[in-house]
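anyone else get weird line breaks when pasting these?? whatever heres mine. first is seq + tokens for prot A
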Amino acid sequence: MALNTSRLDTAVEAFQKICGHDRHSNLDGHWQLYQYGQFYVTNRTVDDLVAQIQTELKANVRFQLDPPQLTNAMNFFNAKLRVSIKTANLPVILAMLDSMENNGDMAAIKLMFAPTQSDRANAQSDFNTLWSSQDLPANPWWTGSASLQKAQAAFEIEKDRCWQVLRSFARMLLKKRAIKSLPAAAQISAALLGGASIKNITPKRQEIVYASQPELTAAVARMKEAIDNGGYVHCGVLSGALHEHSKFGSPEHHILVFAYDVRDGQDAFAFWDPDAFVSNIASTVTPTNASGWGRGFGILFSRPGRLCTGVDDADLAAIDTDSTSPTFGDHTSEPKRHCYQVYTLQSLPLRAAVKLHTKVMSPPSGASVDDMLDKAIWLYAAHDVEIHEASRETIDPGTDLDRYQTLFIGDGDSGASDEVTALQAALRDRREEFGVEPSAGEAVVAFVDDLVPAARGSAVSPPGQPSIVLSASAAGDWTLAHEIGRLTGLKTAAEPGQLMSASTAGLDDPVLTDEEAQIVLDSPLAEA
């Protein structure tokens, strides 16, 4: 059964053309952006690794004289490397290189499989360089470093970055299309859609239940309005196959809706999936497009009580719940059609963005970095402010930055302390090993062990270096959101329950007033 429509087909082609890929004109452009998605660095590292292996083998006289041997060797490397990179079998690869070697002529290739101390740093640098950019790269780029270990390090970095990649890619696409804002009628800022909650259907399967059908119906209408005005809709989703995932309220995954049509009487929405490998609908093949939509694209269906990838209730129920299966979480009716159920919505673009660069010197012991960021994002998004994490760096112990783990912040009356000033200067001057240098209008958020005097956080910054420091031992759910407010000019609020209360301890769904939101929007740090 074909799931697509001609209107959705056209919309997918238009999306691909933004990246320079046009199958009608045989233009490749930068198709890797949407087909590799959040695993871009992983896959580009493998691409480059395979290309370097091929270059080495083609330069080898033995393989020049025996083309079938070259073909067999490349078939082997493609089969072993173009798999789930975390399970790539290094001993088998090295054994094959040993069997191929003659007088040490495989030495250069063997070096590509030898771990180095810079593998993770190179992967992190590539990731940050790409996704902190404001502009859509016209073609695939590369830094020149490729190894199996770098690809594996990239996978570990990228596997939890669907939110950051989706938002960064959306910003690139919107800038390329010159879409800067949406009218009020097209804006969506609902944190939880239609009173959504989880219902356990079986020990291995969950469904989203919406308490308010009118809210769900209105949200779908707003989605169309946002798309009609050139915007996108960022959807937070649950897969439905029960496994370890983030606490409900913080989406398990994220997808980007960009087009809609009616199919068999149901509203159907085309989306781009940052985890592009799990979305590749075979039935989108048409007589004029033998490859269909390809990797990275899927369809949501809206019907009473549902906004999900299931065509009907039977389709929604029939998913692979075997966590050991390569199709875990997929609909069983068709491969590469992952099950998604929507429960948060946000229209894009927002009016302004505050950009953050997160430096985790000490992991927080209370709320996680992602939980703090998620709460800040949704609170400010309701007031048309995007909190955009442009980069994140985990700084391992054993560097000269350890001396700042107990950070003296002073009383704030005389500005940033010497220790805060020195730390921020050090964190901003790490481009060579990290790939991103924050600008003067972008904030650096640092998590350290403790602050002295004791505090959850502080936004007192050195001149020209907007910064937040947070105590890993004391920061809570709303500390980051509170300090972002401080950084953008908000004062202490007198009323309890407000974000800018004197203390964030015990806050639950705090209030950010319209007047406070306008101060944030007017801040020099809120980039239009």
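and prot B, same format (seq, then tokens)
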Amino acid sequence: MSKTKRPNILLLFTDQQRFDTIAALGNPFIKTPAMDRLVREGTAFTRCYSPSPVCISGRCSLVTGQPAHVTGSTDNVPPKKDFPSFMEHLQKAGYQTHGSGKMHFSPDLYKLWGFEARDIQEEVVHKGSDYHKDMLARGYDHVLEDGGMRSEYYYIPQPSQFKPEDHQSSWVADRSIAFLKNRDTSRPFFLWSSWVKPHPPFESPVPWSKLYRPEEVGDSFRPEGGEELLTFWNRVQNRYKWRDNGRDENLIRTIRAAYMACISFVDYNISRVLEELGDELDNTLVILTADHGEMLGDYGSFGKRCMLDPAVRIPMLVRWPKNFAAGKTCETPVSLLDIWPTLMAAAGVEEAPAPGADLKRIAGGEQAGRAVLSQFQQKNLGLYMLATRKWKYIYSAADKTEFLIDVSGPAMKIDGRNGAGDPQYAGELAAMRTQLIQQLEKDGYTDATENGQWKAYDVPDFGMSDPDFGLIYQDDPEDGGLLQKRINELPEGYRRKVYKTGSESAVLIANAIKLTR
């Protein structure tokens, strides 16, 4: 392919955005005109799944083009070895590669990994991040948590302490626009604009924080028998996200309203980036997607770390005129793993085949019967999924339980009942189980299976009898205990030791569930 014909590439990436949060795809409550434009002018893949429904492992699979069982990053932990990134391939092919916003690379948050330059802004306060330095220079030294208050406030909706123009979501767009204004026009570019939101805390600047009223956003999905679809990880996650000790319907609706506000503010900033492209937009491959979703009270659960649709299913919108049809939807299952081959094909880069497939070919009707997989954790805590157009199969090692869910029908519906115990689906259950196990074993992954069957592990003990055990605190950022410093400045008689840090609580959880890595 001639270098002059290669497209620019813009990857618009959100954090914790579930699949059903775009107005043009059927959400009757949310306002997303920028995403609606991409739906209208491009192709929407309505059955896209994260290869691992948590931040670091999902992003690791995206960047490397490899599934979690191959990278070894099956949770918020680093990959087991160095893997090349698609940014490295694009850079070698002559692309100017730039990243703006949260990348969540592990173990080095500041790693370039094929970027020529990065505007660094991460989920929590980091003294070395460009965003934190900018906010200190703008007089925000009183703000200890850039993205909102965490710990016991993690799922409590809150207005941002920043002006709209200084908020994280605005800053990512500002830095993306600055790159576009000053880029090397002799080369095609790859720009990854990556927003932290709508990852909790659900905080937006005024007046965006008041965009939705709780009674306007609809109730969470609580089907009869829905609790039977929950796994060990739903229960653990509800605990350490402070959401397992009673249900307040008005609070849940307020959480949902605040979550949607975060998405709408990101959407507005996406519109600013698209506008900056101007006449270059039609020569740019634009992909919008996310690392994973958010349960948001559905099935009585919160967070991600599970294989139910609100957590594992994500948006995937692609705009590239003459290559992706405008206004089209594709219901063939796809994954973040498909971005690697899509970018390589668009850039005309010849490289070793990746497990994924070019989204352009999929949209054209190829591989209509394909299946995609996802994994979270491993060994006694492993959670595995295989999804086709008709079925979704899940296995939870911690529960020693299989799930088989019929996902056919309307693309925007949420998972229904578990059919794994129904004799009429025994054949489908066995076929899905065999296909998933064979794929894992084919790749040399043996932590989960033995002789073509799931390994039997002891059921972990989380200590659920104590309602206060395992509550995660994240008050002490990695940059040196700012909260404790402020508490020490209180008048005598009010001072106290700061709460446990997230890392200390994580150790307690690991010990309680006898985690063996």
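btw re prot B: Residues 249-277 form the longest helix (29 residues). Residues 54 and 175 are 26 Å apart (CA to CA).
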